[in-house]
Amino acid sequence: MSSTNSTFVTAVLSLAILLTLPGRDARAQDCDAGTRCSDFAELMTFMNTDEQRNPEYRLVQPRYDLPTAVPRHAQYSRACYFFAVAPILEYLGYSRFVPGANYTYNFSYASQDGLASHRGFDAGYYLSTENLMAMSVLWESYYNHCDYDHGWVCDPLSRAGFYQDADQTEINTSPESCARRFAAGEEYGQCDVPGNDYEAWLDQVGNGCGSPEAPCNPTAGSGMYWFANQVMQFYAGCNDMRMFQPHADNYQQKLHMRRVVKGFIDHNMPIPVVVRQGGHFMMLVGYFDLDSTGFPRQAIITDSSRRFSLVPLTTFWNEHDNRSLRELLPWNQHLDGACQAGGWARTLDDASTEFKLCDMPDGWTANCVEDRVFGAEITCEDNDSVRS
Predict the structure, then answer these.
(1) β-pair partners for 381
(2) I want to staple 375 with a disulfide (CB 3.0 to 4.6 A). Which of 93, 133, 147, 168 is the partner?
């Protein structure tokens, strides 16, 4: 594996769109007085009203059939982490949604009888949200040796609802209506046909950090950082997720956070973020309201509702609200040479001592999965004939 990918030359590498659309409509809906837009169309209308202090804003570019990076369907009950991670992997070209797709396989999970096998699970497509959720269960159960000692020590096996029976031996395959999670055009996997059901264990799988077994640091041996940095390096992305949590009253730290936000979005890199005092994961996909130095004062974030929240980057910090940031989770900044000399991430690091995107933990080497084939255009030359 390598931290660069010289062969992936289309779609992913181009800069984010700078949107300064003329003819702004003063009659636009107000996106709940500038706090949350109900959909992408309302967001676009709001961003181009005369009331905006600065008409310049950026969003990561449209990709495939989506206007920007958003989840494929509504979230399972506890799975906000996976709904903030899977769309980024798809956006970067590691996976590709196909309507009605099926991807069926078996995976192991921990039970009080030892490892059990769930057979014939349909995740829809490779690296879908469901595939990542099953992958997390497998790795925590088997590779991470999730043990039972008066209670499971890792998520989601600590939840009784993950199991079909009180003895915690069978995974919960009780039917839940796909209509709760999938709208028309979003169907795949277990929900490839309207009216189908999905298995109830999916509502029990989450991820996070903060327990003794899953501390909130990049080298954790369980939990969300372990999954992103040690599990996913075999499948997709880079092993470089870390936490950037500026102090609410530290101007320099929050200024550098705004630089980081601008750097990621300008280079078409959505960022996982934590809101609601650590209670929810979302994706940061854009920014607006630039100050006199050119750095954004507000960000655009979204989750599986496909609503877009307009989030202050300078005030309203770490409150119990989905519009209140707690921390950024910079991830995949080593892609495409961004941490090499002259790369955009390295340039940000060189300009500040507040937080380093490119520094790796002691003894770690940055690795990125090279194979990003979805969204690329492959051209072959044969005797001066071009065949795509």
Answers:
(1) 386
(2) 93
Nearest Cα to 302, choosing from 256, 327, 271? 271
Q: Is 149 helix (H, G, I), strand (E, B) or coil?
A: coil
Distance, CA of 104 to CA of 3 (rounded, Å): 31
CA dist 175 → 196, 204, 257, 386 (Å): 9, 13, 43, 50
Q: What whole-number distance in Å separates Cα of residue 38 and Cα of residue 50?
A: 20
- The DSSP letter of residue 74 is P
pLDDT tens-digit map of 321-362 = 888 999 999 999 999 999 999 999 999 999 888 899 999 999
Residue 67: cis peptide before it, omega within 30 degrees of 0: no
Helices assigned H by DSSP within 94-210: 129-138
Contact call for residues 340 and 6 (beta carbons, < 8 A): no
Torsion angle (degrees, nearest 10) of CA 133, 276, 283, 35: 140
DSSP 161-185: GGBSSTTS-SB---EEEGGGT--TT
